[in-house]
Design goal:
Helix 1 packs antiparallel against helix 9 and helix 3 runs antiparallel to helix 9. Strand 1, helix 1 and strand 2 form a beta-alpha-beta unit. It contains 9 helices and 11 strands. With 275 residues, the chain is α/β, with parallel strands linked by helices. The protein is 36% helix and 20% strand. The strands form 3 sheets. The chain has a 6-stranded mixed sheet with strand order 7-6-8-5-9-11, sandwiched between helices. The termini are far apart. The protein is elongated.
């Protein structure tokens, strides 16, 4: 029997931790008849952007990170982050996964870890502490993004964009360091955004998305018996994209419900061809 460690840099309640990681781990345990088990670490062993190195260096056996936290290292995944990419996380994740494994993987941007799957979060939207009626209202606003395409979009709109990991967003908004954030709808619940926001501005297909990689330490992978490697491979690739995509869409749906109940006002739906 092998016990592998997992960790997540969002809260234990976040669906990435509780549904995606824990759910996938349960699938693998079942597929290997309990030969491969997982232990969730109580604390992530690095700052979120350092996750790739933490897995590569063996501080934890499995984890995930968004490519936009490390844009110099993960360049091709930014394609899946472009504006209007997908109406749902499932649509975008499956499309990205198929393109990634066919064309991008051979380039080696995840060299050093055993990549298990790629996916994206749901359509990224704009949340602000004050009303945004037109592009002039955005000029100079301090907007927290995760980097990558989200940061480029924020800069193109004339905001003063800066990059911070997602879990810091509530404090950044509450303290006034940030005037707004770019996030998918699930974050209304995940990061308690409804208590510190006035407006959500929603774009069909998203203003951006964030592309994630889910990976494992290569040394630990190499030590697994071939039958267990085969079982994990069957639950990887597009399976992970679908699993994570469906989970994110459900979390976004709950986030939208919470937003409607919250009193966050001036809910705009903007068309891709203009305000």
């Amino acid at each position: 029997q092998t016990t592998l460690t997992m960790s997540s840099w969002v809260s234990p309640q976040h669906h990435l931790t509780s549904v995606v990681l824990q759910g996938w781990a349960t699938e693998v345990e079942k597929a290997t008849n309990g030969r491969v088990k997982f232990q969730m670490l109580p604390k992530h062993p690095s700052a979120p952007p350092g996750t790739f190195d933490a897995v590569r260096d063996g501080l934890v056996d499995l984890s995930y990170v968004t490519a936009s936290y490390t844009p110099a290292r993960h360049i091709l995944p930014l394609m899946a982050e472009l504006p209007g990419a997908g109406e749902t996380s499932l649509i975008n994740s499956v499309a990205y996964s198929r393109i990634y494994w066919k064309h991008f993987h051979k380039v080696g941007e995840y060299k050093g870890v055993k990549l298990l799957g790629v996916f994206t979060h749901g359509p990224g939207q704009m949340f602000t502490k004050k009303a945004v009626r037109n592009i002039n209202d955005l000029q100079g606003l301090k907007i927290r993004t995760g980097g990558g395409i989200a940061e480029a979009v924020a800069n193109a709109l004339g905001t003063s964009a800066f990059v911070k990991p997602a879990p810091e967003s509530y404090e950044l908004l509450k303290s006034g360091v940030a005037d707004g954030v770019f996030f998918p709808l699930e974050s209304v619940i995940s990061f308690k955004l409804d208590t510190v926001l006035e407006q959500a501005t929603l774009f069909p297909g998203g203003m951006y998305s964030s592309a994630f990689g889910f990976f494992m330490n290569e040394g630990k992978w190499a030590k697994l018996p071939k039958q267990d490697q085969d079982a994990i491979n069957k639950l990887s690739g597009e399976h992970i994209a679908r699993f994570a995509g469906k989970s994110w869409d459900e979390a976004d749906r709950k986030g939208m419900e919470a937003l409607k109940k919250s009193g966050v006002k001036h809910l705009h739906y903007l068309r891709a061809d203009g305000l």
